[in-house]
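Dig into what follows:
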Amino acid sequence: MKNNALFLPLCFALSFCLFQCDAGDEPNPISSSTLSCEKNPDVCKLGEATNQFGFDIFKKLEAEKPEDNLFISPLSISSALSMTLNGANGQTKEEMLNVLGAGKINLDELNQAYQTLLQELPKLDPKVNIGIANSIWYRQGFNVNSTFLNTNTTYYNSEVRPLDFTKPEAKDIINKWVSDKTNKLIPSIIDQIQDNSVMFLINAIYFKGAWRKQFDTKKTYDSDFFVTNSKQVPVKMMSYGTGLIKLPYFSNEKLHAVKLPYADSIYSMTVILPKEGYTVNDILPELTLTNWNAWNKAYSSEEIFFALPKFSMRYENSLNASLEALGMPTAFIPGRADFSGIATGAELSISNVKHKSFIEVDEAGTKAAAATSVEIVVTSVPNNPQFIANQPFIFVISESRSNQALFIGKMMNPTVNK
């Protein structure tokens, strides 16, 4: 059986291998960013935590449907959940921080790191287009704690907008925001707004990078991709021709890996391939933070023959079950979840963490996008009453001495008879 390729585009989505140049590549001379582990230790702590979280949730999702394609952005998922984390307290906060921070970073460090990361990532390589955007949409009239909103606008640059969730166009407004921020690669994230939905916390990521050394379309050839021993499918295989190409390469007993740099080599795609006699299932357990860090130090510039299929993929899934299995079940349990930092007097919980992603790889480079939505629902009505006169109503004008009604009216349509 031919080896199946395991594509791990975490490197460009997270890119905390960004702080070291790939073997054989020149450093980026024109980056306007000063981001480094020495100057920004919290960002590298965040990188460690997000990589750990990414490997963990990747393996959980893979186990659900091992025969299916899978593509996620751990950075998008972590960003949306970290915004939500700032409204959590008690056991809910402890579990979420343990899953997202992997015991490596506290909440203050996490917030500071995201603030730096969101500012610096787009500046790392001016030849790579990367955009990261966050937003919070809450039900109009729902009393959100100002501290929660201020934290998210300060550290996550979140757009904050109240919205009338009762209007049919409300979900379309949110979906348009996601579509705009991902250059239409993710056209929507919300299918419906429930009656008890009070907030959506959303992250969107867009990436477009040209290969440092682009593939020649004339050298793309027809080939087979071996799904199993007995099943193969036709693909267009990109290559640099019949000769050898110098690339950062790593190898051990079970696998070998190549880094394909984009533009000025700050961003790259890592392709990990099982060796003969092994399968993807054999190397999945090898995806640990310890191994990942060790591999990144072990690449050397090697002359190899290299070929990669052109492909595109869409992925969509609810992350609830995987997140619960990773150790944060309380956030999803009505009556036990504690999001009192979002709003006081309201019993809130997470209803759904939804993730969508897209990737397209061709001879020129890669386009990728992802969006994550955290839906917050209310299971008890806040103590303070809400009164929004957005339907027909009766009104009375009276005087207080004798309680005499001077006028009584019924408003059915405020736009008529002006």
User: Anything to note?
Assistant: The mean pLDDT is 86. DSSP finds ten helices and 16 strands in the chain. Residues 41-64 form the longest helix (24 residues).
